[in-house]
Write a structure and sequence with these properties.
Distance between the termini: 7 Å
Order of helices and strands: HEEHEEHEHEEH
Strand content: 25-35%
Shape: elongated
Number of helices: 5
Structural class: alpha+beta
Helix content: 25-40%
Length: 154
């Protein structure tokens, strides 16, 4: 593992947002209305939105979705996600930061979704996997802090 990545991992702190989250699939045309409703109902809450020609996908708290769900009775909703923020600013030219974290969760059989912002990454895991996910992620971080079990690789 590159030293720059190891140092970033070693300095990473995990933060779990307390509310449960939902992942929602809406028609592509719902994007504008969704943003307007979100600004009215939950203006300061976490929101991740991806729009393609086929669909609008949104990640938001269950509470925020509950205030807006009536507008989209046919939405496909996946409940029970928890958001883990990797408290570490990552430059856009860094390669390999997420790999050891994702590999550890995959080895533990924990499904993972990644939401990347400009300088911070967020991981989504199912509620049932939250404790194990935090343990696995912290193990990787701790190993990076010790220089890795084999002298640097995590």
């Amino acid at each position: 593992m590159e030293e720059r990545v190891r140092a970033l991992l070693a300095a990473t702190r995990l933060r779990v947002d307390p509310p449960p989250f939902v992942l929602v699939r809406l028609p592509a045309a719902a994007c504008s209305m969704l943003l307007a409703r979100f600004d009215q109902q939950a203006p300061c809450e976490f929101l991740s939105l991806v729009r393609s020609a086929e669909e609008t996908t949104v990640l938001l708290t269950e509470a925020a979705w509950g205030r807006m769900a009536g507008d989209w009775p046919d939405a496909v909703v996946e409940r029970g996600w928890r958001l883990i923020t990797l408290e570490q600013s990552i430059a856009l030219d860094v390669a390999g930061y997420l790999a050891p974290l994702a590999q550890a969760l995959a080895a533990a059989g924990i499904p993972l979704l990644v939401v990347s912002a400009f300088s911070t990454d967020h991981l989504l895991v199912h509620e049932r996997d939250l404790t194990r996910a935090k343990e696995e992620l912290q193990r990787v971080i701790d190993e990076a802090g010790r220089g890795g079990a084999d002298g640097g690789a995590v």
